[in-house]
Design brief:
about 400 residues; mainly alpha; Growth Hormone, Chain: A; globular
Length: about 400
Amino acid sequence: MTSVHDTEAWQPGTVRDAAGGIAALTIATFLALTTEMLPVGVLPAMSDELGVTESIAGLLVTVYAFMVAALALPLTLWTRRLPRKGLLLGTLAAYTAANLVVAVAPTFAVVAAGRAIGGVAHALFFSLSIAYGSRLVAPAFTGRALAIVTAGASAGFVLGVPLSTALGTAVGWRVAFGVLAAGCALTLLLVAVLLPAVPIEAPADDSRTERRTRRGRLAAVTATNALVYLGQYTVYTYVAVILLAAGLGAAGVGPVLLGVGTVSLVGTWYAGVTLDRRPRSSLILVLAVMVVGLLAIGAAFPALGWVIAATAVWGMGFGAVASSFQTAAIRTRGATPDVIGALVNATANLGIGGGAALGGLVLAGVGLGWVPYVGAALVLAGIVVVVVARRAFPATPA
């Protein structure tokens, strides 16, 4: 079924056919991820200037993520009849406003309000972008298309967060958010030009039993997604704190995160070449790499060189995670692509927010050295679910 708002239906084909639209989504994803995670890199500086503890400043990530988790599905359902492209552009406008508010905020409360605006935008953006990426190509190319779009998120880790962190360290975290606001505004114009409109298709006409089966598989994928993100962000939210405690100077945090992010592109590349052929074994391998890296951080801390090396291994594994779970969820066909995108987005951010909160509790309780071990245990639990739920994570694409 074609949306009444989309007068020319896009015909999905190969990744090359959809190159312009995929590039636009990738760049937008880069800015969205950088907006979400920038506080991680400038957390110590923000807490100092705003007069709050690092654990309290970490709530800027927690509240943002919980807003996304709570709002992704309802906002997607409420806007399901609106044109997808116009809605996506609206989220980019909201990102611009959110970053601008944070840049000029006089108090922590106003910073939190700006982050709340970004949280609302984020609740829709990633729900839309996951579905959009899958609609731009034929089903046989879903994994590759989503891996490329997700490369924007990886680039956010590689370039966005580290460069913004370095900028924030050099001239102040407010300048970093101001530059990010300008980047979001420019990306809005780029997306308006490059991204084609797509139709909103009707739900699949399956039997009740088949729908129940597909929904069960979708539930398994999204629950595992939440578990892995919980483990990831229990540690990643406080990665700057870990590096500083291991002896790295404040000026070195940005460059180290840049190097770690660059290594994560190996994982993103690996997802792109394996998800359309052997998605199950690919996911198990990248999660295992994450566990090894996290355990190594805990064992090596506070030896700086080994901590940095272990962080690179951890980052390499995580580079493949987002596109792996997005592709697995889309392939369950447990709902429409928009609803699937919302569920993947919500569960990822439930894990992000929960991880930030859990990491803060561990940090304030048993201490920083235990944070990587808690993260590793949670990701390991995710591997167990993937191994057990074989139909939700099939060996080959359905």
